[in-house]
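Table S2 (text version). Query chain:
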Amino acid sequence: MRTLILLALVGFGAQLVDGSLGMAYGVTSSTLLLAVGLAPASVSATVHLAEVGTTLASGVSHWKFGNIDWRVVGFMAVPGGIAAFFGAHVLTLSGAAAAPVMSMVLLALGIFVVWRFLTIPDRRPDFKGKVPGFLLIPLATVAGFMDAIGGGGWGPVGTPTLLASGKIAPRKVIGSIDTSEFVVSLGASAGFLLALGSQGIDFGFVIALLIGGVLAAPIAAYLVRLLAPRILAIAAGGLIIFTNVRTLLGLDAVQSVLPGAGAYYSILGALAALWIAGMVWVVRRELADRKAERSPDEPEKVLVNQ
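Corresponding structure-token output:
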């Protein structure tokens, strides 16, 4: 019973982050399930079954708060779901080999997102244009496949790429990625059930993760609606950088050149400190910009996404 309560809390926290930053539900949940000894395929199957419910709740919540670009969902959902279905069948073949390359690509995207939104000269970023469909479809294919073989990858691949385009407001990037993930989760779950049956899947774990995630979904969608674009982008970009640096530092080739475990934690600690400093700076900048735009008798609404 204690384990199920812990999993529900993990599901709540993971969905709170995922629904407000567009990533991390799968990565967070998978890490815990691997730690308790489940096989990688069983972990990914458990997480994706839970995500069928959490992404549905998240999609409805984002829709209620107007956080969805339905054009993006239309282009990405089905290709992502198909790719996740096939990715579920090859989980044991290629997940580890792809991880370093994918981490380097995502790290570069995360750095670009943070740099772009820290250096925007305008007080209120302007998001115009459309990401071409011929780019959205292959993006969805790669993200869906990586999601199935890695236990979480739809958000970490899709969110920074769309943010880096600068054409879609961050809240709509996050809402669209979370909503289309419902189809991705369906595809991955179907693939795992066909490949594994129900063997190795603890449905008590699934339900616990599901309950926590469903409870957090509307709160996360509200936060996305509330917070200003630059704050969302720096928070998401910092999370991308931190998680992928951690992945790269954990590689055997990198570990062999580090002077010791202290260096690993020192690098991550310094990175976390920079991320926090960046968040403080962008919040203070947002406060100053809102104050400059506000008339003397207007009430203060400094962080509201207008």
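Notes on Table S2: The radius of gyration is 19 Å. The chain has a mean pLDDT of 80.
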